[in-house]
Structures are given as structure tokens and as C-alpha cells.
Amino acid sequence: MFSAIARVFRTPDLRRKIAFTLAIIALYRFGAHVPAPFVDFPNVQECLRQSSGTEGLLSLVNLFSGGALLQLSIFALGVMPYITATIIVQLLRVVIPHFETLYKEGQAGQAKLTQYTRYLTIALALLQSTTLVTVARSGALFGTTNIPECDQLLTNDVWWAQLLMIITMTAGTGLIMWFAELVTERGIGNGMSLLIFTSIAAQFPVSMWAIWQSKGFEVFLLVLAVGVVVVGLVVFVEQSQRRIPVQYAKRMVGRRTYGGTNTYIPIKVNMAGVVPVIFASSLLYIPALIAQFNQPQAGQDVPGWVTWINLYLVKGDHPLYMILYFLLIVGFTYFYVAITFNPVEVADNMKKYGGFIPGIRAGRPTAEYLDYVLTRITLPGSIYLGLIALLPLIALATVGANQNFPFGGASILIIVGVGLETVKQIDAQLQQRHYEGLLR
Predict the structure, then answer these.
(1) CA quadruple 126, 69, 162, 34: dihedral sign
(2) Tell me: the pLDDT tens digits for 402-425?
(3) What sign has the CA pseudo-torsion 288, 294, 300, 301?
């Protein structure tokens, strides 16, 4: 293993790519700590020190931004606008036929969809930065706290100062998008995935130190042991796949013979990735957001439905919240897999090139068989996603750790998934140079 790592740094081209990637990551992390204009940095740090952060969707955005959201930095929005824009464009392929046509056009169509994703990212960044500045100005960024500093996060709240903050944060999102594309073109691995990986990994030491400080060394060791087991299980499931054998008949094109090969269609146990967890977290945050905007004035009674939402659907340590969260993840997993994997399209492509599954007729029977396999393999994948996503909530209810519990939810899925993919890319480049790879 260590000799393989040494060979990575002895290869000039690979060494330059890794150095370039690390330089971009360093710039990204530096920008996450640079405060936006008119932000009262000492007050923000005092609020971070005294409060336990925030919950719901804001905690997810803060996690993906590497803690930059609550610091109101120039990179406060992180990669969340780009992730949201990518998911929206992917879902619009089902609704808008033009998007599906562009997707099937190859490289030119993909470039057009990427351009649409960039425009949508900037629009979402404008919307989210406006919301963030408004929430920070109202003093509700850290929730309902009794900390005086949290009500004075901005040094100047006139309209032009807020406009400058919004423009700065939107420009920061555009810069992050450019960083990601540079890493994809000139570095190693997928740029946006690596920036997400960096943001989440940057929160691990802080979260573990907080557990040590608040719960003691014994709980710290227990969390560490659970983390090792969870990482091992996530690696095992993420690498698991059902391989459906496919044979291609021989065919003559001119004087040359094509086909006659055996291959397989890999169907992963977790085909949806981390998207169902993001969907479920966002949907569960909506009732809490509605209740927050319907708080009564002084002297008025709290409506019953607002009390019910605050009791059951705001904090993640209630059993009803956990059950709803789990069921939403299972449902969204089936929904997202149905959108991203089309058995009819796969069956038609196989039939077009003379491919067939042994024992299954080409065409509609093949599509029905693929749908049968996909439906059944998605069930354990959705249950696995739900259990992994519940780990931070279980930790919140048992040991009192906050929802940024490091070994669970979206964070561990992204860390393991991006780590595996990056190692595979380094391994492929090593093997191109006739070296033994990192993976054995």
C-alpha cells in the first residue's frame, strides 16, 4: 500500500494533478473562513461558540458548506446551489422532452445541459443568499437563542450593504463552480464531489472534539468504534452490485465481424446515492419552516398545529420524526431510481446492438425482467439508506450528540463514495503506466 502511494508521487503527471487538486482545495477552505462584507465576525464566532448550531435543512447546508454557512463567509452557500440545480435539471428530463433530447445527443447536448445547470445555479445562489442575509439580519440564523450577539450579526443592515453581501455570496458560488470544473479538467477525480468531500471532512475533527469535550473519552471511543464499523459496512454495500449477464450475437459489417462477446449490466444495491436523504431532509424541514413563520405575537396563544409541529417534527430525537424520515427515504429511493434507470431504454439499446439476456427474449420481456430485478434490489438499498441516515438522529437521542454526528447520514455516504471513486481513478492512471494499482 505504501509503495503504491510512493509510486503515485514518483509519477510526474499524476503528482502534478494531485498537487493542483490540493491547491484548489486549500483555496476553497481559505474562502470558507473569509467573512462576507458587513459581517460582525466576533459576534458570529461568539454565537458559534455558545450555540449548538442549527437544525433541519440549514444544518445540511452548513454541513455541505464546511461550516461556512453559519460563519457568513464569502463561500457561505457552498456547493448546495449547484447540487440543487443538478438534481432539478435531471428531474426536468422526465417533464421536458427537449431536455431528454439534449441528453441523448451526446457531448453537444450534455454541454448544453451543463450550461443550463450553471445558469440555474446562479439563480438559486441569488435566491439562497437573499434568504440567508434576511435570516441573519433578523437574528434567527442560530434559532431561538438568548445570546445577545446572535441578534447583531451584521455591522450595517441598510439595503445597499445587504445587496453587496448577496452579490458577494452569489459570486462565491460561481467561483466554487469554476474551482470544481478546473479540478475535473486538470486535477484528479470529480471536482464538485471532491469539494463536497472536503467540506464534510473538515467538520469531522470539530464534531469528534465536541463529543470528547461534552461526553467524555469513553463515549468518544464508542463513537469511533461505531464509525469504523459503519464505514466498513458502507464500503461493502456501496461496492455491492447485481451483475445481469448479457450476450451479444455476432454480426457482419462489411468484411469485419462484430459482437460475440459476453458482458454484464451492473445494478448497484444503492443506485440512488445520497439524493433520497437530501430530498427527505428538505421535505421534513418544510413544516418546521411554516411553523416558524406562524409564531404568534406577544400575548397571543400558540396555535395547536404549531405546537404539534414544534413537538414532533422539529427535533430529530422524536420517534415519529424518525419513522417519517425513514419512510420518506425509502419512497424517494424508489422514485429517484425509477427516474435515473429506464429499463425500456436499456432493453431497446441491447436489442439494437444484438444483445440479449440468456433465457430472456429481447425487447419487452427484457425490460420487464430488468424492472423485476431493479424493484427487488432497490428494497435493501432503500432500507440501508434509511438506517444510515437515522444514525445521527439515534446519536442525538441516546448520547446527545448534535445532528452533525460525523458517522452517519449524508456525510458518511459522500465521504466513502467520493473516496472510493477517487482511489479508483488514481488506480486506473497507475495501471495505464504499467504500475500495480492501489486496489488489490
Answers:
(1) negative
(2) 545 666 677 788 888 888 888 888
(3) negative
- The string of pLDDT tens digits covering residues 322-362 is 888 899 999 989 988 888 888 888 888 888 877 888 888 88
Amino acid at 383: I
Which H helix or E strand runs over 252?
strand 251-253
Helix, strand or coil, per DSSP, at residue 73: strand
Q: Which three cell numbers stand for residue 431?
A: 495501471
Q: Measuring CA to CA, which residue among 437, 412, 413 is closest to residue 426?
A: 437
Residue 175 DSSP SS3:
helix
Cα separation, 320 vs 322, in Å, equals 5
Q: In the 8-state DSSP scheme, what is residue 139? A: T
Start-to-end CA span in the chain (Å): 9
For residue 268, the SS3 value is strand
* Res. 292 pLDDT band, cuts 50 70 90: low
The size of the chain, in residues, is 440
Give the Cα separation of 389 and 147 in Å (integer). Answer: 31
Relative to beta strand 251-253, strand 241-248 is unpaired
Q: Global pTM?
A: 0.78
Cell numbers representing residue 80 in the block? 448546495
Q: Which three cell numbers stand for residue 123?
A: 439563480
> Which grid coordinates belong to 330?
425509502
Residue 51 pLDDT class (50, 70, 90 cuts):
low
Is 210's pLDDT higher than 90? Answer: no
Residue 175: pLDDT band with limits 50, 70, 90: very high
Does residue 306 contact residue 295 with C-beta atoms inside 8 Å? Answer: yes
Amino acid (one-letter) located at 89: V
Q: What is the CA radius of gyration of the chain?
A: 24
State how far the Cα of 349 lies from the Cα of 347, in Å rounded to an integer.
5
C-alpha distance from residue 3 to each of 6, 7, 50, 262, 405 (Å): 5, 6, 46, 35, 34
Reading the block at residue 58, the C-alpha cell is 440549514
pLDDT band for position 24 (50/70/90)? very high
C-alpha cell at 429: 492512471
Query: Across-strand partners of 247?
Result: 262, 356
